[in-house]
Amino acid sequence: MTAETLTLAASGGTATPAGLDPSSPLAVRGLTVSYGEKPALFSVDATFPAGAMSAIVGPNGAGKSTFLKAALGLIPAVSGEVRIFGAPLAASRDRIAYVPQRASIDWDFPTTVIDVVLMGRYRKLGLLRRVSKAERATALDALARVGMEGFAERQIGQLSGGQQQRVFLARALAQEADLYLLDEPFAGVDAATEKAIIEVLKSLKEQGKSVIAVHHDLSTVAAYFDHVFLVNVRAMGEGPVARAFTPEALAQTYGGRLAATQLAELALTTG
Amino acid sequence: MGAEFVQFSLTPILIGTLAAIACALPGNFLILRRQALIGDAISHVVLPGIVVAFLLTGTVAALPMLLGAGAAALLAVVLIEAIRRVGRIEPGAAMGVVFTALFAGGVLLLEQSDTSRVHLDVEHALMGNLETLIWLRAGEGWASLADPVALAHLPPELPRMAVAAALIAALTVIFWRPLKLSTFDEGFARAIGLPVSAIGLGLVITAAVAAVAAFDAVGSIIVIAMFICPPAAARLMTNSLARQVWLSVGFATLSAVLGYVLAGYGPLWLGYANAVSAAGMIATVSGVILGVACLIGPHRRRVGVAAGA
């Protein structure tokens, strides 16, 4: 396990390694992103461990999704370095699977479930190559892994929120990547879907893959994740959940926005 | 249908159909991107560009027209951005101001310049001159299609429009996957390394090529109508993008053929002496098709009302 050292930027701890760790699936140094004049992320350092499930945690508007998008190059960064398994982003596209926020797209788009999952194969398919039986089988297998095998020909607008999220996860599985980046995968989904998704993510981890998810539900962080990265515009701390996900670190990350009772409860769940 | 049809109706119908298809193809992606008005905007900006290009070169050849229209489109984009930033207005309003102002400027320029030698005037800009694109040399009727002398006298708009339509169809097929993915899920498209901004720009440029090529032959009314009506009607009829695009081509063709025939013969059937504007009738037919699709289309569910959500 890398990044054992708990870095609490706010408490003055600046134990950042000299270089970006090449074994880390996602290492970021000095990442600054700005919408207009106000920085959404300011000089953020983070190193995620390989073969683990990591959560990106912070209050609303803290830049969690922005962090993920900037790391993926979806939005421009003012400054900062990003390394995927030690390589620059452009050389690592085939190793990354991405699950965007479900609400970010128009589900009324005229397409079917299997079509969406096949989009995960577009890098391999290129512009004109026909979808082979093997490619189709890969997509159907990905659907089966999220429990949606009966929905291949269904119009995507007819799906429930949880089913939509599973289709997005299936598309990421079809990418056959080493690093899975998920933006709020549990937002607005039913309990059964949440359980199905976490099962899939855990199986990915068992295969040695790395999973990093933006996560908003503090009560499930300890149960789901190994590693946590706390962010509120600045990096507020990172490390194994048992050590970094403390009431003190959360109080610092959330400022006054978490009630003392909530913190006490969390202390119990993480203890 | 004999020699007379080939001489007087075949080429305008073909040109109208090709123009309609060339506009409808990019229109499919524009409406799905909620950018339908870009087609409208482009067809307006084209006018001052074409007029200035004509004033500078003295010809209405395809290349200077295209360059002029392209330059005008570029100017429009810069102006929109400037107005949006300096005036702090929303993009839709900035777009509306710029395109109407540029179009109005084009109308004024056109009025003041001597364009009597060529087919370039305000009426032409709006409605084109489809009815005049006839093939007089086709005296042999259908046999003229195999006569090189007659073929050499085809209205030049026909091969020009055919090339534009073929080019746009080829681009649609080749870039189908990037177009589909970047329209559906821009974030994911970027994440797998697709040049999303370039694809969006390419789509707008393709729409501009369609508008410029079609504008000369059929005028801006058809261009505006064909960017929106056939794809929108097709969207209401199916939930598959491929079927939508094919249907839009079908609706565009139907609009052009039916519109031309109705404009030419409809008033006669009703007992009136004169034909009406073919461009106006083609656009009207496309609007009627959209209206019918709204009423009976199987997929006219309102956006955002997900079944079982």
What does this structure look like?
The complex is a heterodimer of chains A (271) and B (309). Chain A is α/β, with parallel strands linked by helices and 271 residues long. Chain A has a single domain, classed as Rossmann fold. Chain A is built from ten helices and nine strands. In chain A, the strands form two sheets. Chain A has a six-stranded mixed β-sheet with strand order 5-6-7-3-8-9, with helices on both faces. In chain A, strands 2-1-4 form a three-stranded antiparallel β-sheet, covered by helices on one side. In chain A, α4 packs across α5 and α5 runs parallel beside α6. The two termini of chain A are 21 Å apart. The relative contact order of chain A is 0.18. Chain B has twelve helices and no strands. Chain B starts with a helix and ends in a 13-residue tail after the last helix. The C terminus of chain B is likely disordered. The interface between A and B is medium-sized, with 34 and 33 residues.
How are the strands of the biggest sheet of chain A laid out side by side?
A: 5-6-7-3-8-9
- Ranges of chain B where pLDDT stays below 50 over 5 or more residues in a row are 302-309
State the shape of chain A: globular
- The end-to-end distance of chain B, rounded to whole angstroms, is 55 Å
* Helicity range of chain A: 25-40%
